Amino acid sequence: MKLSVVGVLVFLSLSTMAQAGGAPAPRMPSPDTQQPQSVPLATAAPVAEQEEFVMPSGNIGCIYTPAGGTATYQPADGGPELACDIIAPRYVRAMLGRAGAATINREVGDPSCCSAGPVLEYGATWSGGPFSCISERTGLSCRREDGHAFVLSRASISAN
Question: The whole model's pTM is what?
Answer without folding.
Answer: 0.70
